[in-house]
Amino acid sequence: MKAYQIQAGAGIAGLERVERQSEDPGASEIRVRVDAAALNHRDLSFARGQFYSRPGYPIIPLVDGYGEVIAVGEAVTRFKAGDRVITSYYPRWIDGALSPSKTAVSFGAQFDGTLAEEIVASEEAFVLAPRSLDAITAATLPCAGVTAWNALFVAGAVKPGGSVLLLGTGGVSLWALQLARAAGVFTIVTSSQDEKLERAHLLGASATINYRTTPEWENEVLRLTEGAGVDVVVEVGGEGTLARSLKAAGPSGTIVVIGRVSGGGGVSIEPGALIGGAKRLVGITAGSRAMLEQLVRFVDVNKIHPAVDKVFPFGEAPSAYEYLAGGRHFGKVVIDMRA
Ligand SMILES: NC(=O)c1ccc[n+]([C@@H]2O[C@H](COP(=O)([O-])OP(=O)(O)OC[C@H]3O[C@@H](n4cnc5c(N)ncnc54)[C@H](OP(=O)(O)O)[C@@H]3O)[C@@H](O)[C@H]2O)c1
Fold first, then answer.
1. Distance of CA 259 from the midpoint of ligand 1 (Å)
2. Nearest atom of ligand 1 to the alpha carbon of 330
3. How many whole angstroms from 11 Cα to the centroid of ligand 1?
4. Predicted TM-score of the model (pTM)
5. Which fold has domain 145-283?
6. What is the spatial distance between Cα 335 and Cα 320, in angstroms, rounded to a whole number?
7. Which homologous superfamily is 2-140+306-336 in?
């Protein structure tokens, strides 16, 4: 079967097209024909050597995948041939609170991922795909989708009628926009580009701010919320945004710390910035399989079609990486394995 492999830190140029032997599934494993695989910022981090992995070990990259079950081991109970499935980010995190062992391994980092014609893994590492989505859109749930779900409804516990601030228009933020809108939440989206903000409005953003032309965007968030601040910040920015996000959150607000697209360096935070407003600073990492299953149901019920910016054929996977690294995307970048 055809696949790409890469070593952590090899850079995008280190993506190598290879032929791998097709594997038979073990007793508790399923074999899936991968139809689509989506890219995430973490896959760039992996290529750049900024993501934990075993050194000197080539791996099939990517965690996001959609496909059809083509063979099952004799002890498999959750799936049958013909089922449409998506990957679950942490195969060992089924439900409940996370623990180091539950989040120790994920596809496309510590073991082979989805940028291949086929994948063989434990049946525990998959869930049934949303019935309402096609291969390309369904492939975007396992990382960005479940992270947005966790940020809004688990860590952030936002309620209908509440408010959320979404930084930038990358995969996680636009997933969060579409979920929050469906849940009746007031959404403020920031971006470096007005054209992307117009597209965010079309996706249902309640208000938008250009963070380049309005560098003190936290004041604009306060103005838009009549001084109250937002209930939840989906904090994907890191070093360059965290201090402002703290100010943009209202009393009892939650800043869900997810990423570091603006840098991963240290940030100086005064204790009073949290104490005075009784604000919460919470880190999250993707989500459990149970969260992914909740997301699948929510997507089907609310007919959510995740924003996909561009689809690349399998043979142009390195171009898909370059495109994501260039930051021109609005939402998800997906690789169509059938093209
Ligand atoms: N903790 C977790 O479990 C988890 C899960 C998924 C992702 N992440 C992390 O979360 C971050 C986002 O991931 P992603 O996949 O959504 O990335 P992505 O699709 O590559 O999104 C990047 C976007 O971030 C925006 N951005 C860049 N600098 C910014 C700034 N200074 N202020 C506000 N927005 C800025 C840009 O939006 P505009 O072009 O609109 O300006 C850019 O398009 C990454 O650091 C990723 O590693 C963490």
1. 6
2. 43
3. 19
4. 0.97
5. Rossmann fold (3.40.50)
6. 7
7. Medium-chain alcohol dehydrogenases, catalytic domain (3.90.180.10)
Distance of CA 300 from the midpoint of ligand 1 (Å): 25
Is the CB of 39 within 6 Å of ligand 1? Answer: no
Helix, strand and coil percent figures for the chain, each rounded to 5? 30, 25, 45
Reported as half-sphere exposure (CB side, CA atoms, 13 A), residue 11 has a value of 1
Q: What is the pLDDT of residues 25-42, one digit of tens each?
A: 999 999 999 999 999 999
Nearest CA to ligand 1 atom 26: 168
Determine whether 273 is exposed, middle or buried from the number of CB atoms within 10 Å of its CB (0-12, 13-18, 19+). middle
Give the domain ranges of the chain: 2-140+306-336, 145-283
Q: Which residues pair with 36 in a beta bridge?
A: 66, 336
- Average the pLDDT over 164-170 and give the result: 97
What digits encode the pLDDT tens for the residues 299-338? Answer: 999 999 999 999 999 999 999 999 999 999 999 999 999 9
